[in-house]
Amino acid sequence: MGRALVVVNPIAGRGLGERRLGDVEHGLRRMGMATTVVVTERSGDARRAAADAEAHDLVVVVGGDGTLNEVVNGIEADRPVALFPLGTGNVLGKEFRLPRRPERFCAMVARGRERALDLGSANGRRFVAMAGAGFDAEVAAEFAAARRGPVHKAHYVLPLLRCLSRYRFPRIAVSIDGAAALEAQGFALVSSVRSFGGPFVITPDAAPDDGVLDICLLRRGGPWRYARAMLACMLRCQHALAGASYFRGRSIHLAADEPVRYQVDGDAAGFLPVAVELLARKLRFIVP
């Protein structure tokens, strides 16, 4: 059946990446696939490994959203990608209900059903799920600075509380498809998917292959307003984020008069301004 490049984050899922690798590799070989395994050790390894995808027929990612994002930014060849989801947020895993047992994952790969997913770009960095500016990016940066080894969802609690206690929810100017700028207060999200990670659904009408990006702007900011809105989303008390406005577009520019961070697929990526674009290129993604 060809050759598979298997890119593994060994600490994903609190070490499950390393423990599940043997089962995934064995399942692929039983399908008749030769495998090349790359185990990442530091940031950038998955992106560099994906640059060799042209010599393979399939790229398998064993890890989370961050590892997948690196692969998407490294792969240039037109090859399908399959994700064995072991991350903390597991945005794509939840979006497509991807199997988390090796035998079911390999069965999915064997069936070979593909969807052509939209790819976005934020200042040149590709993303599959989202790019955002403001509070969520600040939490991502705080979390990354404190991260040590494997991650659990509970590890986000302290960075979240710290940011809630001090974040000022600055004004963010958002221009959509060249129109006059709108104003968000401390939170602007551009997404291709419904899930925001964990139990949160912030862009419920988004679809990963509809050729448009969904935009959520918090128009009235403040820590407790944000916290109440997110709690309501988590408990499914409402269809969308309270106090937010929703738009759709293909080219979005975000800027601010003070330093405001932005994130790409859940990882802090820099400071505004950022130009977010829907790319013509699609990602071939294996789904159940």
The level of helicity is 25-40%
- Structural Rg: 19 Å
Mean pLDDT across all amino acids? 89
Protein structure class = alpha+beta
Shape: globular
Q: Strand sequence of the main sheet, in spatial order?
A: 6-5-18-15-8-9
How far apart, in Å, are the first and last alpha carbons? 19 Å
How many extended strands? 18
Whole-number total of structural domains: 2
Number of helices: 8
Structure description:
The two termini are 19 Å apart. The strands form four sheets. The chain has a six-stranded antiparallel sheet, covered by helices on one side. It contains eight helices and 18 strands. The chain is an alpha+beta fold and 288 residues long. Helices cover 30% and strands 35% of the residues. It has helices at 12-30, 45-50, 65-74, 91-96, 102-111, 135-146, 157-166, 223-234, and strands at 2-8, 33-39, 58-63, 81-85, 114-122, 125-127, 130-134, 171-176, 182-185, 187-191, 195-197, 200-201, 213-218, 244-249, 251-255, 261-264, 267-271, 274-286. It is globular and about 55 Å long. The longest helix is centred in the first third of the chain and has 19 residues, at 12-30. The protein folds into two domains: 2-112, Probable inorganic polyphosphate/atp-NAD kinase, domain 1 (Rossmann fold), CATH 3.40.50; 125-279, Sandwich (Tumour Suppressor Smad4), CATH 2.60.200. Helix 1 crosses helix 5 (102-111) and helix 6 (135-146) packs across helix 7 (157-166).
